[in-house]
Amino acid sequence: MANQYRVGVIRRADGQGFKLRYKHGKTIIKRQKNQWSKQ
């Protein structure tokens, strides 16, 4: 039971972090595309 609870908490925390990482990932992709277009 305790293990399931911990997994649930981690998933919930990861869900919040995923939104931030998704936004951050988009900006990183934009930067990479800009660097590629400059080359």
Which helices and strands, and how do they pair?
Elements: H1 2-38
Structural commentary:
By secondary structure, the chain is mainly alpha-helical. The chain has a domain at 1-25. It is built from one helix and no strands. It has one helix at residues 2-38.
Structural classification: mainly alpha
Number of extended strands = 0
Q: Count the DSSP helices.
A: 1
> What portion of residues belong to β-strands?
under 5%
- How far is it from the N-terminal to the C-terminal residue, by CA? 54 Å
Summarize the main sheet.
none
How are helices and strands ordered from N to C?
H
Mean pLDDT: 69
- Radius of gyration from the alpha-carbon trace, in angstroms: 16 Å
Spans with pLDDT under 50 lasting ≥5 residues? Answer: none
Apparent shape: rod-shaped
Helix content: over 70%
Features:
mainly alpha; 39 residues; 1 helix; rod-shaped
Task: Write a brief structural summary.
Helix content is 95%, strand content 0%.
